[in-house]
Amino acid sequence: MLAEISLFGILVNVGLASAVVAGALLLALRKVLTRIGAYRLVWHPALVDLALFTLLWGGVAFAASTPDLRLLAFLG
Q1: What is the DSSP secondary-structure string of 16-71?
Q2: Using CA atoms, how far apart are residues 69 and 76, in angstroms rounded to an integer?
Q3: Greatest Cα pair distance in the chain
Q4: At what angle do helices 14-36 and 45-65 cross, to 10 degrees?
Q5: Does residue 39 contact residue 33 with C-beta atoms inside 8 Å?
Q6: How far apart are CA 74 and CA 76, in angstroms?
Q7: CB-count exposure of residue 43 (10 Å: 0-12, 13-18, 19+)
Q8: pTM of the model
Q9: Mind listing the pLDDT tens digit for each residue in 22-71?
Q10: Which among 67, 61, 68 is positioned nearest to 5, based on CA atoms?
């Protein structure tokens, strides 16, 4: 596994890149959850956001480290 990726000649840590992708996905998911009113049902919305970010970050890291064939078999 690579420890960094080259982005226009600048080496970026893979953990940072996957965290940025997970953060962008979280922003989109928060908009959807806010519009449907899901945050009214939870006790602490910030903890829900933290949990969702952790799950998204783990999923993005798993998807990035898994070859395509195993990922497709895992997803069904």
Answers
A1: HHHHHHHHHHHHHHHHHHHHHTGGGG-S-HHHHHHHHHHHHHHHHHHHHHS-HHHH
A2: 11
A3: 46
A4: 130
A5: yes
A6: 5
A7: exposed
A8: 0.78
A9: 999 999 999 999 999 999 999 999 999 999 999 999 999 888 776 665 55
A10: 61
